Amino acid sequence: MSKFTLRLTPEWERAFFLSVQMRDLVELHTVKLTEAAVSAAPRPRRPTKEHWNAIGRHIKPTLALDRYGWYGVVVAEVDARMRHSMLQERGWTDRKGREHEGRWFLKRALEKERIE
């Protein structure tokens, strides 16, 4: 029987989280989450053509590296003129005081891609 000794330093995971393989793994799951959010995004009732301000066109994945490792972010409003996707998500009150409930499409995409 062979002997095996495992020694873990206080920051043993840092090299793993900064590796190229971790970047590829984070990118894979970020892209999957982005695709789920785009497919769940609200669409017009009568789709005659794809407008510049359609919510699905402005959901983009972003990867970043900090001192702890790679992380992925799904950005819902890249364009500064696009402010209505969060109103569609959470709901709003119009000028007459009527409340419009949210569609929660981003939350549904997160729940769909959740790892149990």
Task: Describe the protein in words.
The chain has 4 helices and 4 strands, in the order ααββαββα. With 116 residues, it is α+β, with helices and mostly antiparallel strands. It has a two-stranded antiparallel sheet. A hairpin with a 2-residue loop joins strand 1 and strand 2.
What is the topological layout?
Layout: H1 12-17, H2 20-40, E1 60-66, E2 69-75, H3 84-90, E3 91-93, E4 99-101, H4 105-112
Antiparallel strand pairs: 1-2, 3-4
Helix pairs in contact: 2-4
Beta-strand percent range? 15-25%
Q: Unreliable stretches, pLDDT < 50, 5 or more residues?
A: none
User: Count of helical segments?
Assistant: 4
Shape: elongated
* Largest sheet composition: 2 strands, antiparallel
Q: Structural class of the helix and strand makeup?
A: alpha+beta
Question: Strands of the biggest beta sheet: in what spatial order?
Answer: 1-2
* Average pLDDT reading: 84
Tell me the helix content.
25-40%
Query: What would you report as the Rg, rounded to the nearest angstrom?
Result: 20 Å
The H/E string reads HHEEHEEH
- What gap, in angstroms, lies between the N and C termini? 37 Å
Q: Could you give the count of β-strands?
A: 4
In short:
The chain has 116 residues and is an alpha+beta fold.
Key words describing this protein structure:
116 residues, alpha+beta, two-stranded antiparallel sheet
